[in-house]
Amino acid sequence: MTRVTDTVPTPALLVDKMVVGGELLDARSGETFAVHNPADGSVITRLPAAGAAEVDHAVGVAREAQRAWARRSVATRAGLLRRWADLCEERVADLTKIESLDVGKPIATARAVDGSMLMENMRYYAGMPDKLEGRTIPVSGRFVTMVLREPIGVVAGITPWNFALVGAAGKAVSALAAGNAIVIKPSPLASLSALALAQVALEAGIPPGLVNVVTDAASAAGEALVRHPGVGHVSFTGSDAVGRKVAAAAGGELKTCTMELGGKSPLVVFDDADIADAAKAAFLGIFLNAGEMCTASSRLLVHRAVHDELLDAVVATAGGLRIGDPADESTVLGPVISAAHRDRIEGYVQVGRDEGGDLVTGGARPDLPGFYVTPTVFDNVEPTARIAREEIFGPVLSVMSFADEDEALRIANDATYGLGSGVFTARIDRALRFADRIEAGNVWINAYNLLHPAVPFGGYKNSGFGREGGFSGMSHFTREKSVWFAAG
């Protein structure tokens, strides 16, 4: 394996090949692309740059493997998925080390957050194969009608870089639980954890060809995968700009798809809220994972009566964050994913200044190697400002004040996105009104960003469509067939 830096020991499971049909493969062209460490910009390794030929091969072996997988009993499938989950738990230290190295995520966060989410997903979906049921429908006359739920076949899983390990695992294990095979096309900025996950699947006895990973540096493999006639469903997580292209391509081929896209989520704090709890939620909502979260609470809406108290608490916490090497156990804020993304975030910071927002803290580049951005807070931001409306996907918080519930809801809903939202209040009636009226797929009351694989997750408006999680999410990986019986 090609490594430019020897400062970090190479984690186990780190490979520089695609995983297709149980084999480690290069691209037929021999072309590769560099994978960079966000903490210092060094090259970790190089990966194959796949194209249409590699995708065609991956879909072909996936289709063949899926036919045999669908014929296996649900008990056999569930047992193999449980073994995969067991082995992931045994190898979780290696998997989270790879995630930290590849994404720049602090190792403590990778273990506590990503490792926990990984195991929740693996355990939950491993128990799903025997939970999917059909139904009967009473009809007039002498007929009995059954509705069967069948696997789609081959699923295309296009995964993001911010939660690369969890994203790949959730799509893969849920697809297999429903009886499908999957071809994963990870982000070129974070492909290593998906490759590692596929290796663990093979070690666990998951039949070759059910979990495949093709890598590329641009969009060639992704486009070929979405358009491939052997793919029945596309599960995409990423930006709304790319999501529109993927959905259009899938629609042109009459494929089903789910789109989990971006967000500009509001966190609303009323004057009767527990300010300490609200400040903690606001801090974690925007600064965890360097703000690279689709549900990031990037808009903090605060009642005028408690504005100063809450702002002071958030700024004090942000100012005390330890920024630095993701491999350091004490690091809280690591780098963002790339130099280009850092420059984009810094561009938004300048936009915030130009628009007249009050820069309370942050805004300067840390004196560190790698792609770091300091925690940044703007106060007195106009709801119409670009930093209050466009997804920055970094540790930049826009603070706005409101006078009453109607104004808070008006500001919260004045967005093109609708993924996450939160409200802190002691009044149950207000919380329920907010949950009813907010235009978002997820509402957290006196908490923020709680996730579990049993709970449907998805958005409204530009945040996409379809759901991940629970039986709602599983329905996207199956299709219904109606069967009529003449009873006599």
TrEMBL record:
Residues 28-483 form the Aldehyde dehydrogenase domain. PROSITE patterns: ALDEHYDE_DEHYDR_CYS, ALDEHYDE_DEHYDR_GLU. It comes from Pseudonocardia petroleophila. SUPFAM superfamilies: ALDH-like. The keyword Oxidoreductase applies. PANTHER family: ALDEHYDE DEHYDROGENASE-RELATED. Coiled coil: none annotated. The active site is at E260. Gene3D superfamilies: Aldehyde Dehydrogenase, Chain A, domain 1, Aldehyde Dehydrogenase, Chain A, domain 2. This is Aldehyde dehydrogenase. One of its GO terms (molecular function) is oxidoreductase activity, acting on the aldehyde or oxo group of donors, NAD or NADP as acceptor. Pfam families: Aldedh. It comes from the Bacteria. Belongs to the aldehyde dehydrogenase family. InterPro entries: Ald_DH/histidinol_DH, Ald_DH_C, Ald_DH_CS_CYS, Ald_DH_CS_GLU, Ald_DH_N, Aldehyde_DH_dom. Keywords: Oxidoreductase. The keyword Oxidoreductase applies.
